[in-house]
């Protein structure tokens, strides 16, 4: 027993010597220590990458000269400066919608709502989200490099379901607009655009303030531009109703005039309509921060009551640089879709003031009297 005890004590002593002398005999590399420590302290980076697909359809025209495009599609029926550096070119296509935005005759975006699938291949109108997912993965996060800065943005749930973003290998993008009319939403329009236009429109949540933004042109004829944008908005809303086999809205001149008065009243009396927090949010947008500002139901009710406009509902949003893009977005938004496609007899009025828009819907007098009698 005594020999065993001495043997155990000897082995234990030898183990202690090896344990405590190891750092002396085998010193660790300080670089390895720092690397290991950093790996433990730094969380894994978030993957914001996305995989572009092969360029096809209208995506081939992004960045190209407008004159070449018009050799294939003819001259526009109307062209108008937007007041924000780009020109809007509208083309006459029976039962369809084709609009091209350019800067210095270079194509920046193409919006298409129609029935010719070869223009949007490998996609097709009426396709579902499941069918889209078989062609390309739907990414929730994107990082775009712009003028030595990285801009991160994220698609929220509604964006993923109704306004997904696809990237092409020529550096262009496409926003796919899915409707609300079926049990399973279907593709009805596509907007092809370059990265700068995408960042300036800011249709998705931007994670930083590095994004570029549109600035007003100093020599813009705003009266003429506002009239053009009002008609541009009305025409697309009416076309969407026709495609859904719903009677078009009647256009009420008095409602148009009232809309301009309401926009002016809101601009002059924001402090009376908005809470301090909401006013600060609006001021951030006005200072060029990415995003948009929309009056909520309570604010809109207060604004309409102030001007004593009966039986009227509305949507006030700013900034709206590209009205057609905004209408397509509204049509893919459940609440606004119900207003845009409502089947009752309703008058429509649209008012623009530079980048601010107000859309008004007014029930017919017959509907109002029937509602009151009930």
TrEMBL record:
Domain CAP-associated: 62-204
Domain of life: Bacteria
Name of the protein in its database record: CAP-associated domain-containing protein
């Amino acid at each position: 027993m005594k020999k065993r005890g001495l043997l155990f004590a000897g082995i234990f002593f030898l183990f202690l010597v090896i344990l405590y002398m190891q750092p002396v005999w085998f010193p660790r590399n300080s670089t390895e220590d720092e690397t290991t420590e950093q790996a433990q302290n730094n969380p894994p980076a978030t993957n914001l990458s996305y995989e572009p697909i092969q360029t096809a359809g209208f995506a081939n025209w992004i960045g190209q000269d407008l004159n070449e495009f018009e050799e294939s599609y003819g001259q526009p029926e109307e062209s108008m400066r937007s007041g924000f550096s780009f020109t809007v070119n509208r083309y006459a296509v029976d039962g369809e919608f084709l609009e091209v935005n350019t800067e210095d005759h270079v194509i920046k975006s193409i919006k298409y709502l129609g029935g010719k699938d070869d223009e949007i291949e490998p996609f097709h109108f009426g396709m579902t989200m499941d069918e889209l997912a078989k062609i390309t993965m739907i990414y929730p996060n994107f990082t775009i490099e712009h003028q030595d800065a990285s801009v991160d943005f994220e698609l929220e749930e509604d964006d993923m379901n109704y306004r997904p973003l696809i990237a092409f290998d020529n550096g262009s993008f496409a926003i796919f607009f899915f409707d609300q009319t079926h049990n399973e939403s279907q593709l009805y329009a596509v907007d092809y655009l370059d990265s700068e236009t995408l960042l300036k429109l800011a249709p998705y949540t931007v994670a930083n303030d590095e994004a570029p933004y549109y600035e007003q042109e100093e020599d813009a004829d705003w009266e003429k531009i506002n009239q053009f944008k009002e008609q541009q908005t009305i025409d697309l809303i009416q076309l969407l109703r026709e495609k859904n086999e719903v009677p078009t809205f009647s256009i009420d001149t008095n409602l148009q005039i009232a809309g301009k008065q309401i926009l002016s009243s809101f601009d002059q009396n924001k402090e009376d309509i908005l809470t301090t927090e909401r006013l600060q949010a609006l001021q951030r947008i006005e200072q060029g921060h990415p995003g948009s500002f929309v009056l909520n139901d309570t604010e809109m009710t207060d604004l309409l009551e102030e001007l004593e406009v009966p039986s009227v509902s509305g949507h006030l949003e700013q900034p709206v640089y590209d009205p057609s893009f905004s209408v397509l977005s509204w049509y893919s938004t459940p609440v606004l879709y119900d207003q845009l496609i409502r089947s009752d007899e309703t008058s429509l009025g649209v008012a623009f003031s530079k980048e601010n828009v107000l859309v008004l819907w007014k029930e017919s007098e017959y509907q109002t009297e029937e509602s009151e009698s009930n």
